Amino acid sequence: MSSELEELYQSIILDHNRRPQNFRVMAESSAHAEGVNPMCGDQLTVWLKMNGDVVEDVSFQGSGCAISKASASLMTQSVKGKSRAEAEKIFDAFHGLVTGHGGGEELGKLKAFSGVARFPLRVKCATLAWHAMKSALATREG
Ligand code: ZN
């Protein structure tokens, strides 16, 4: 592997690909959204359970490459327990990180995806679950 690829596939990404967190269908969700990335073949669904303005629970299921799966897994960990506004703020910071437009220290573990910025085709993989989360957030089913 080249060092750039090594940077892309950091161990945290490989771990979350092997053992994704919150990888399940949510029976009683407030909202859900699907994400499809035909360029790579990634396909996933994100479920949210809102408690007022707070993301009480979040899960995902689907299939895709290591980047898309690990990113979805870390996304669920990042937004769980956060308010709608906080979740949207994390989305913006993460999007900035993978597109090479910043992304600060507050991203913590998500900084493992900074290498994605050098692989434009991978940006869609890394942001797929995040876009689905954001559209689920925008859906008000109750
Ligand atoms: Zn992918």
Summarize the model shown.
The chain is of the alpha+beta class and 142 residues long.
Major sheet: 3 strands, antiparallel
Indicate the percent of residues in helices.
40-55%
Q: Report the CATH topology name.
A: Sufe protein. Chain: A
Structural class: alpha+beta
Q: Total number of helical segments? A: 5
CATH class: Alpha Beta
Uncertain segments are none
Explain the overall architecture.
With 142 residues, the protein is α+β, with helices and mostly antiparallel strands. Helix content is 44%, strand content 19%. It has a three-stranded antiparallel β-sheet with strand order 1-2-3. Helix 2 (11-18) packs across helix 3 (66-79), helix 3 runs parallel beside helix 5 (120-138) and helix 4 runs antiparallel to helix 5. Bound molecules: zinc ion (ZN). Residues 37, 40, 42, 64-65, 67-68, 125 line the site of zinc ion.
